[in-house]
User: Fold these one by one.
Assistant:
Number 1:
Amino acid sequence: MQKPPISKYRPYPVIDLPDRQWPSRTIDKAPTWCSVDLRDGNQALAIPMNVEEKVELFKVLVGIGFKEIEVGFPSASETEFAFLRRLVSDNLIPDDVTIQVLVQCREHLIRRTFESLEGVKRAIVHIYNSTNPLQRRVVFGSSKEEIRDIAVAGAKLVKELVPTLPDTEIVLQYSPESYSDTELEFSLECCEAVCDVWEPTPEKKMILNLPATVELFTPNVHADQIEWFCRNISRRDSVVISLHTHNDRGTGVAATELGLMAGADRVEGTLFGNGERTGNLDIVIVALNMYTQGLDPQLDFSNLNDVREVYERVTKMDVHPRSPYGGDLVFTAFSGSHQDAIKKGFAQMPEEEGALWQVPYMTIDPKDLGRNYRAIIRINSQSGKGGVAYIMEKEYGFNMPKEMHKELGKVVNAMADQTGDEITPEGVYECFQNEYIKVREPLDVIEWRSERLNDETVEGWAVVRHNGEEKNLRGVGNGPIAAFVDAVAGIGYSDFELLSYSEHSLSKGARSEAVSYIELKGPTGAKCFGAGIDTNISLASIRGVVSALNRLVKA
Ligand SMILES: CC(=O)SCCNC(=O)CCNC(=O)[C@H](O)C(C)(C)COP(=O)(O)OP(=O)(O)OC[C@H]1O[C@@H](n2cnc3c(N)ncnc32)[C@H](O)[C@@H]1OP(=O)(O)O
Ligand SMILES: CC(C)C(=O)C(=O)O
């Protein structure tokens, strides 16, 4: 990098709009969305989609609810042309969906584009030319007037060709490409000139698309540019103002949102932000951002995983694990305090459908996107007891007493620390099994039988293995646990106190089993839990006592 003074780059000029209105506006309705996945997204792929892949993605876009879909650049290649013909021949364009085609302002390309539209009911013909000073100089070697005339010639030719498709309603869209980098007055001049040719009316509008072809500055400048244009275009009621942002500075979403506040009506973008360089605007994000504000985005992402599966397969692009809403890790907490808060948030969410979503760290209910809760909490050495308890509960159905969370949390944390790895839910369960269930030394219970003698007394008989030796024991108490405690006193386990006991059935798993949790206090004052599982509830509690005794001995 150049050391200061930096001469290689310069700041972009700010816009003089002291009475700008957009900062105090909010977004209160969904814009008209236009997917450009099949065009801008496609043109940025190393291996562009073939016809079958485009058909598959087109159907997904229709399913999401896009009413405007840029299907390609039909004059660019046989594949692009064939795809549009396929949409027509297989009658794949629903009546309420308008397809859009892009073309440069060049005669042979515009004519070819019209050929591709035969049989389409309604189409947006999108013409563009670069208008910014750099491209005027290095690409076109043309004056402003000559650049404006390219656009005018393109618009005239489109108008002239409209009668060749009498059954097709044609809407004109014009993009002063690189609007973001063009003098505002000059972009306006080109757009006004195209409007003069097309003569839009409030009943028959045309679309003026103002692309941030390359994102060059902060989103507020983009908003200023859009507000300035909306205020200055002469036929505001006859034109739809459209945004088309890219993401070179990583703020395409913000630029679009501020652009909507600045008065735009329409948004072009792609799923997961696929597109040239750093990508186009990610429509999933903007739409779901609206949804999280209680606004109907008019796009349905209730099966985001399915959308993503098709997207990744046909584009051969990956959705980044941290991509908002769609990424693998966006609903996952590894760290203890996040897990604790999420677990508590879930526990306190009212059950009724439509209850206000209030789970800490989660802006949206993953279920609204068809995503499950499985990966919300994942365990590594940054995790805490709450996360471990959550896994035990959600994955395996164990509602451990709160005081026990600490114990198991410590064991799992030590394992994660030692391995340096993530501990899968299976790993957490294995820890639980090893720590509580498979502890059969020095004491193990082989058989247990009890009988209630009267209201106050239960008698119990146990066959136990103690330090490898089998023993028959007998005890009495006011319940089975007390009888067992009395029985094991005979082999030296007398100096402990039963602090708590709880049990529940295990709904998950093939057999219907019960689990008991027993907390004991040993002679040194040390406390520890035990857990027992059995199909017989009474035996489950005895196993819980044995588990706690063995752990107390070990401690
Ligand atoms: C910002 C965007 O995303 S714009 C969309 C970009 N998408 C694509 O380019 C994908 C599809 N494009 C293609 O397949 C090809 O580029 C085609 C078929 C459109 C044109 O192919 P070719 O004519 O062989 O080549 P190429 O694109 O290099 O043409 C460049 C010429 O077009 C001119 N040109 C470029 N854009 C435009 C435009 N919008 N309007 C008029 N002329 C243009 C250039 O000035 C250049 O002119 P020159 O030959 O006099 O120097
Ligand atoms: C053709 C235009 C709209 C474009 O893709 C861009 O400027 O990025």
Number 2:
Amino acid sequence: MIERKSDLARLEALDCGKPLDEAAWDMDDVAGCFEFFAGHAEALDKRQNAAVALPENFKCHLKKEPIGVVALITPWNYPLLMAVWKVAPALAAGCTAVLKPSELASVTCLELGDVCKEIGLPSGVLNIVTGLGHEAGAPLSSHPDVDKVAFTGSYATGQKIMVAAAPTVKPVTLELGGKSPIVVFDDVDIDKAVEWTLFGCFWTNGQICSATSRLLIHKNIAKEFIDRMVAWSKNIKVSDPLEEGCRLGPVVSEGQYEKIKKFVANAKSEGATILTGGVRPKHLEKGFFIEPTIITDINTSMEIWREEVFGPVLCVKEFSTEEEAIELANDTHYGLAGAVISGDRERCQRLAEEIDAGCIWVNCSQPCFCQAPWGGNKRSGFGRELGEG
Ligand SMILES: NC(=O)c1ccc[n+]([C@@H]2O[C@H](COP(=O)([O-])OP(=O)(O)OC[C@H]3O[C@@H](n4cnc5c(N)ncnc54)[C@H](O)[C@@H]3O)[C@@H](O)[C@H]2O)c1
Ligand SMILES: C[N+](C)(C)CC=O
């Protein structure tokens, strides 16, 4: 039997507080990420030439070497953080890098280039190439002088990158999309669980790879839970992000706006019920704004259950038993993340083992730290970023 060896991160919120309470975690901790990998560069130096234990009369030395020139291709969501997750470890390992940020959000990455220049990073060590995917990303993926491609983005582009890298047998790591489940049992504080559920799906408008966008709710509390979610969602302030109290701004582009609306329309035409949202808020005539959306009456063959929306859209299904919850949670080609909310720690442990995903949150959804590995299973990609290993 061949065992799959991939790091699984299991992250537990110890007091299950509120997601937006004074953040003890900071998803945009760019400086912390550089600091973390600077520490790793030292650790790497110490491991160089470490001796490996062998039978008497033999000696083996391990030499860690930088792979060479790495192409780092990144998406528009979290544009600076996703770049830093790649740039910092690449430089710490002694590689030179070509960063290709998304054409929709390149400016912060160019600023990063300026900062690196300012602090004296030698010229040519970090190179930043902006442009469209097929014009700037594709040539990097196939270029014979690029030794590795580290990519974060959609499943469709990930496939193209693997194909482009194949002729030169270039290693690739792929951080792709997801359709992650959040499983809520009937032994929870309903208000806290509702808040984590809405946060896990609607935070930054659902434009997060790991958004827990499929809610599996125990049937004993389903009605009350859904009613509270709908009431809460109607109160989420959607506005210009510069306005005081804004919780949801616009989605990134017209293309993304139209795509989300089409997902909602298709769900409706396939027989699902749009309980709330899915439309432009009445008070916002311009801009790519969408009300937070909750959809029920879903069956597992529907597009809305299977495909990543990358917008503020939550699908809801009920379950009766733990086995059924696990089966529904794993009913996806993706395997990036998952969450379980329950007062029973042993049950949480069982679900963390059984859900096939790179990261499982217990009694929370979305916190993410440099110290823990990050990456997906199945069509969410392969390879891990971050982590101590
Ligand atoms: N797993 C993760 O950690 C993670 C993190 C953030 C985003 N994502 C995923 O990213 C996607 C959203 O980002 P996006 O819309 O920018 O993704 P995308 O795949 O459209 O683009 C990502 C990057 O690839 C480039 N690109 C496009 N075509 C290319 C090609 N043929 N060859 C090389 N490069 C090409 C783009 O220019 C961009 O820089 C979602 O699917 C989301 O789940 C995953
Ligand atoms: C990787 N993460 C969770 C920070 C952002 C994903 O889109």
